[in-house]
Amino acid sequence: MAPNSSPRRVGVLGFGRLGQSLVSHLLSQGPDLGLELVFVWNRNPDRMAGLVPPSLQLQNLAELGERHPDLVVEVAHPKITQEFGGGILQHADLLVGSPSALADASTEQQLLEASGRWGHSVFVARGALWGTEDIARLDAAGGLQSLRVTMSTHPAGFRLEGPLAQVSCSAPRTVLYEGPVRGLCPLAPRNSNTMAAAALAAPSLGFDGVIGVLVADLSLADMHVVEVELRGPPGPSGQSFAVRTRRENPAQPGAVTGSATVTAFWRSVLGCCQLPSRPGIQLC
Ligand SMILES: NC(=O)c1ccc[n+]([C@@H]2O[C@H](COP(=O)([O-])OP(=O)(O)OC[C@H]3O[C@@H](n4cnc5c(N)ncnc54)[C@H](O)[C@@H]3O)[C@@H](O)[C@H]2O)c1
Predict the structure, then answer these.
(1) Which CATH architecture group holds 132-256?
(2) Over the stretch 22-69, which tens digit does the pLDDT of each residue have?
(3) What is the pLDDT of residues 60-94, one digit of tens each?
(4) Where are the domains of the chain?
(5) To test the ligand 1 pocket, which listed residue (77, 100, 252) has its Cβ within 8 A of the most ligand atoms?
(6) Could you tell me the pTM of the whole model?
(7) Ligand 1 pocket test: which of 58, 98, 126, 158 has the largest number of ligand atoms within 8 Å of its C-beta?
(8) Which CATH superfamily, name and number, covers 8-128+261-283?
(9) What is the DSSP string of 152-198?
């Protein structure tokens, strides 16, 4: 499947639920698919013991260039993309697994500059966003007037910061935030990635125009629900084109990533390995 005859050398940053799954896939299926795992880095290296061959454990993130990766996959935390993304692009393409990092305008600018300077791609994993291509096509055709993404789950699945972390979620259903995605990402950096992917799929609206809604729902102990609602401009009859999707994804209680999203990430890794490396942001 690899477009080149030599294997694509892949490094993984983060060894939580997503990182462990990707590493396992890369070790078991990578060689047949033309993919070679060249390093795994985790903030706490002890978590890799017995699971990642010692030669593949990277102790110092600043030394990743010495492993000569073609692609670095970030599945740790938006802060890792914000702090190291520009430097990684000097060496390799970057697959951003925590796109809420790009809600910070200076991070987006920095990544775009580094991407252009070094000729490497910033791939963004679509994660839990259903219909990514359809949204992007409608946006490119000028047919998108509004886009709203609602993420609902049990409060144990949230990792909230700042004022949102103080909100009581004792009612059956609590709307924690409703507004531009840019404002939500710093408050819920690990629970706003789907909305961030939507903002990147629809650049005409972007982080300031796409509306994100975060809902704590006590009935959703083992499920993440993502609803996407979009509307086009009114036509001559006054009616608008409109789409609504609802994605119900089983999830372990308290997990930030649902089961189907883990599969979607592996498909994103495979997908971006087939895309040409070129400057700019590409959803995959
Ligand atoms: N794009 C999407 O739709 C989508 C969907 C699910 C998860 N994600 C994101 O992917 C990332 C990984 O998800 P996961 O389910 O594997 O999470 P996880 O909590 O299971 O694992 C995260 C890993 O990153 C490490 N980590 C946490 N905070 C860190 C920090 N500040 N600096 C360095 N390392 C840190 C942890 O030690 C852990 O190894 C998260 O940022 C998550 O929000 C994105």
Answers:
(1) 2-Layer Sandwich (3.30)
(2) 999 999 999 999 999 999 999 999 999 999 999 999 999 999 999 999
(3) 999 999 999 999 999 999 999 999 999 999 999 99
(4) 8-128+261-283, 132-256
(5) 77
(6) 0.94
(7) 98
(8) NAD(P)-binding Rossmann-like Domain (3.40.50.720)
(9) EE-GGG----GGGGG----SSEEEEEEEEHHHHTTTSTTT-HHHHHH
